[in-house]
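anyone seen this seq b4? input:
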Amino acid sequence: MIDLMSKPTAVNYTPHIALSAQWKVEADPAYKVVRAPQSEDFQIAVRTLSGQGQIRLRDQSDYLLEQNSLLLISRNQIARYFCSGNTWKFHWFEFQSSLPLAPYQNQLHTMEISAEEFRNINDCFAILGLNTAYSSLRASSIFAVLLTYWLDRIHSPQNADQSRLESLIGNTLQDLSVQHTVRELARLSQMSERSFRDKFSRYTGFSPKQYLEKRKLDSALDLLATTHLPIKEIAGMLGFADPYYFSRFIARQAGLSPEAFRRKANPVQPSGDPAARIDVT
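predicted toks r here
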């Protein structure tokens, strides 16, 4: 008899990418959209297939989007956008991502659209529109392929500091069970502590402490919601030697204790015959 079990002893962080909406637009000169700020911000990717459009930001700066262009930007930066030529054919993606996109945002990138990319764009649009139980997950998976494909192809100048930060995030910081000090991370990045804090914050949008706490929180909530692992074990997997400190951390960040969050994520279903519980009076 063979009885095998596999489970992680440490948590490797997987970036979160979730596509919330996709628009396929064929605009004419009458096309004009004004955007008001929203309480919840999203990341935007605009991929222009042909024609010409323009996006104006709240700081009054403009982007002219032409064939084969890609723009990554935060939604709440956008004041208005419109067709600035005879036509503007584009796909507009709204998504959330834990990837460090700051180095790629607010600049126009031009790259030819390959047949495979075009197929993925259309598949993503078709699947998201199915509105089935798993269509959003499937579309997000395809969009993750698109987004990482774009990032790989962007030809932006990359200095040594940015390369070292990417290596640090992609390798050293993947194992969340290991504790790191800013001094150690700065040394690994070959920077002073002050320079490391400043460049890390510009690259990720978070201080080193905030970045690690966010990753640990995301992983903790996922493990609490999707596994039956003991809370003490989850704490250890995320580098918390004291499970009570871990509980206080979750309560402070999520507003619920680990036990309460797990109950909320997995409500107990009533037992018995469902038909017998229907009130027909």
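The longest strand covers residues 78-97. The chain has two domains: 17-153, 160-265. kinda curious what u guys think
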